[in-house]
Amino acid sequence: MWIQFAPLNIPLSRRLQTAAVFQWTFSFLAMAHCCLILYIVLAFSRYWLFALLYGIWLYVDWNTPSKGGRRSEWVRSWTVWKYFADYFPMKLVRTAPLDPSYNYILGFHPHGVLVVGAFGNFCTEGTGFSSLFPGLTPHLLMLPAWFRVPFFRDYIMSGSLVSSDKASACHLLSKKDGGQAVVIAVGGPPEALDAKPGQLTLQLLKRTGFIKLALTHGAHLVPVLSFGENDLYYQVSNPPGSLLRTMQERLQSIIGLAIPLFHGRGVFQYSFGLLPHRRPVYTVVGSSIPVKKTPSPTTEDIISLHALYVKKLQDLFETHKAHYGIPEECQLVLC
């Protein structure tokens, strides 16, 4: 296979964009492991007192990821995130205003390989979330295990990431003043195994937990479709029933994480690597679905609201797919 190298005369702005995406890729794939190793090294060095003090802080601060986290507007507004968004480019599209007097659950689809669109749009100001939705505070839910890693937990919380356990979402959606936007990648890690260019397969038909959560708290539902999310990486073929897919699903059931075998591009060449490809990502935020607070929703309540949500999501796809390069014959596959 021939390797396609990047030309030498690339403008500085594009090099900065690549650097921004490189640091994000490192953060997503390797920073947690590096932070854990660093803490262990500190604990067994002459700096053990620092590790001890941080350990005490970790114990005291243990529940913060489930209590709204500790966001930093300074971190969210770093210039690096603007370069990050411009790399693809990534754009956040508002189809209707969202009243900040209500709380919302934003269902993000698809998960993609690394949830790039959800991070870029809701954990940073790279695409201007606060300007498009004034008065709303976004929180992206992430698996609780990542908030147990020393140092790393503090970094991801600064960007509006919070724990995905039930107590975390309930804490945010219980705020009576409204203005909380809880972003849930509905398909979760299993959906990453279907993230392939030209395909849009969503794990949704059996996902009703977020519907019950919305009913319990009276949080309005908002479908979000990220066009181009699945085009950022190539993945090794793993059709349902294949040996690879069976192993991936078995591993996912054990550790709670899906392990897609994927590749993108490198820093100085375009043929292989872990950086996402430069392909447009348009994250379209639909209009809200009003939800009446129902502290003890029945099965019928959940099924009815779930059906309405699915219909709104399908309508959002059909309305906007032609604008963002999706062939007319392409269909949304729900499973």
UniProtKB/TrEMBL annotation:
The chain crosses the membrane at residues 21-41. One of its GO terms (biological process) is glycerol metabolic process. GO terms for molecular function: diacylglycerol O-acyltransferase activity. The keyword Lipid metabolism applies. Its main location: endoplasmic reticulum. It is found in: Endoplasmic reticulum membrane. Pathway: Glycerolipid metabolism; triacylglycerol biosynthesis. Its EC number is 2.3.1.-. One of its GO terms (cellular component) is endoplasmic reticulum membrane. Keywords: Acyltransferase, Endoplasmic reticulum, Glycerol metabolism, Lipid biosynthesis, Lipid metabolism, Membrane, Transferase, Transmembrane, Transmembrane helix. It is a multi-pass membrane protein. It comes from the Eukaryota. Belongs to the diacylglycerol acyltransferase family. This is Acyltransferase. It comes from Pelobates cultripes.
